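Q&A log
Question type: sequence-to-structure
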Amino acid sequence: MKEINTGGKMKMNITTIIELENSEVENIAGAKLVFTQEQIDENIIETCVECFKMDASEETLTTEEGMQIVFEELQQKGIIPQNVEDFSYEMPSCERLKRKNNSVPDLPQKVILSYMM
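Response status: OK
Response body:
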């Protein structure tokens, strides 16, 4: 965590937010996001990420394991500084109204990774 002294009594923490498309996260992790849907009520469906499924096998990873891989890869590429040890993330989740013609799933498309310096 990096604290900035503002010259007085106040210190600030800087938080960096990285927004990634689902496809970018899948590329970095070498695994596909697996979505699950839950019927909330008659007209509302919730879609969430359940896990990662490895590209090279049928093995699955928890969201924590998959996002740890993404974090470490971003550190290797120099996008996240090496001294950062902790991070948080938000996986895609959405509630949507059920449509008459619901043949194409309306999947959320962003993953948010953040860290403090």
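Response note: The chain is about 20% helix and 45% strand.
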